[in-house]
C-alpha cells in the first residue's frame, strides 16, 4: 500500500494542483452555473498530457493507476465535472482502445485520444437497462454481409463533446463493443441533461438509427464485450472514488478556512466542539476515501485482483462525500447554501457521484458476493 507517493507521483500531483489553481478553479463556478463544458480546463489538460494517462507509453501514456487516481483527485478539488470527464475518458475510452484495439484502430484513434485532440465516450446504459446489462435493447442487426446499429443510450458522460463513442450493443454473438465515430450517418447526440451535479460533464442521450457498422469498427471480440470491458469498468470506479476523495478534501479545506475566519461570541468558531466534531468527520472521511482508493489502485499496478477493492472504494468514498459535503454546508450555516461558498456545489457533485458508475447498492452487493 503506497502510504507515501514517490517523487514522480508527487511531481504529477504538483503539476495538476498548479493547473487547478491557474485554470480549473477560476472557471468552475461558471461551468456549473452555465452548465457548459470546462473548455479552459480541458485545454490545460491537453497541454500537460493528462487526457491519455492510462494508455501505453508508446501512445503517450504510461502512468500507473495510483498516479492516475492522484491526478483525478487533485482535479476534483477544483472542478468535479472536469475530473469526471478526464477520469472516465481515460478509463472507458482510451484504456479500452489501448487494451482491445487492433493496430489499425489504435492508429486511427488512440494517439488522438491520448493527446486530447479527440474525445471519446462510453455508451452502455439505456433508458431500460442500467445494472442489468442483459436487457440491452441496442442491437447490431445483420443484413447479408452488412451490419447496422440501432437503439438509444442514456446518461452518456461527455456525449456532446465526443468524437467517437464506444457503444455496447447486442450482436449476433452476444454483447459487442463497436467504435462509432460521432459524425457517422444515423448518429445523433441529444442535448445535455439538466443534472443536479456534474453539470459541466455534458451527460446526454445518444440516438443510433441504422448506423452502418463494419468489421473494422468492432472493438475486441464480438460477443465478449462484458468480459473484455471488466478491467476498464473497474478502473472507472477508481476514477469516481478519486473524484469523491477530491471533493472531501476540498470541503475540508473550505470548512477549515471558514471555521478560522467566522467568529461568534468573540472567538473563532473552530473553538466550538460542535464545529470540531464536523471537521473531524470530514478529515477522517477524506483519509479513509484516499486510502481505499490508492490501495485498490496499487493492487492493479501490482497485477493483483482489485474488483472488490474498487467497489469498496467507490461505495465508501462517494457515500462519505455525500454525507460530509452536506456536513460542510451545515458548518457554514446560511452561507453554505450560497453559491459563493462552493460547498453547495461540492454536495451536488458528490450526490451525483453515488449514481455514476453504477448505484452504490450494486457495489455493496458485489462486495458481499466476493466475500463468499
Question: In CATH terms, what is the architecture of the largest domain?
Answer: Up-down Bundle
Uncertain runs:
none
Please report which band the strand proportion falls in: under 5%, 5-15%, 15-25%, 25-35%, 35-45% or over 45%. Answer: 5-15%
What name does CATH use for the topology of the largest domain? Answer: Butyryl-CoA Dehydrogenase, subunit A, domain 3
Q: Could you state the oligomeric state of the chains shown?
A: single chain
CATH superfamily of the largest domain: Butyryl-CoA Dehydrogenase, subunit A, domain 3
Number of structural domains: 3
Element order, helices and strands?
HHHHHEEEEEEEEHHEEHHHH
Query: Could you give the distance between the termini?
Result: 24 Å
What does this structure look like?
The structure is a single chain. This protein is an alpha+beta fold and 372 residues long. The protein has 3 domains: 7-119, Butyryl-Coa Dehydrogenase, subunit A, domain 1 (Orthogonal Bundle), CATH 1.10.540; 121-225, Butyryl-CoA Dehydrogenase, subunit A, domain 2 (Beta Barrel); 228-369, Butyryl-CoA Dehydrogenase, subunit A, domain 3 (Up-down Bundle). The protein is built from 11 helices and 10 strands. The chain has helices at residues 7-34, 39-47, 65-78, 80-100, 103-115, 225-228, 230-261, 273-301, 307-331, 343-353, 360-369, and strands at residues 120-123, 139-143, 146-156, 164-171, 174-181, 187-189, 204-213, 218-219, 263-264, 267-268. The strands form 3 sheets. It has a 4-stranded mixed sheet, covered by helices on one side. A 4-stranded antiparallel sheet has the order 2-3-7-6, with no helix packed on it. Strand 4 (164-171) and strand 5 (174-181) form a beta hairpin. Helix 7 (230-261) packs parallel to helix 9 (307-331), helix 7 (230-261) runs antiparallel to helix 10 (343-353) and helix 8 (273-301) packs antiparallel against helix 9 (307-331). The longest helix is centred in the middle third of the chain and has 32 residues, at 230-261. The radius of gyration is 21 Å and the shape is elongated. The two termini are 24 Å apart. The mean pLDDT is 93.
